[in-house]
Predict the 3D structure of the following.
Amino acid sequence: MANAERTSSGSDIDEKKRKRKLSNRESARRSRLKKQKLMEDTIHEISSLERRIKENSERCRVVKQRLDSVESENAVLKSEKIWLSNYVSDLENMIATTSLTLTQNGGGGGDCGDDQNANAEIAVGDCRRRPWKLSCDSLQPIASFKT
């Protein structure tokens, strides 16, 4: 009977080994599937991030172009401002000189001279108070801002 117990005990051990092997195989299969899923998710995330990088690079390029355009336009406008300031200053000097000449010459005689002096003084005052109100149709902007 000892022999029968050993056989029974041996078959129990073989059955346990077989079940353990089967369990190990199933665990290994689950592990491989989990690893494959993780790999696919990582690849998907990488492609998504690469797409976002490409989109952001394009946005950055467009913004850089816009910045360059605005900086260039700003430089033109600053140059135009300097030119206009010099132009206004020259006009003020011309008006002041004309006003001084009219005053020294007595205005050319009579009431007409007084009217000219008064107009010259008003023009000088207006020019100093509101230089943007000068009526000069020949002045044209150099650049315009486009959005």
Summary: Helices lie at 2-104, 110-129.
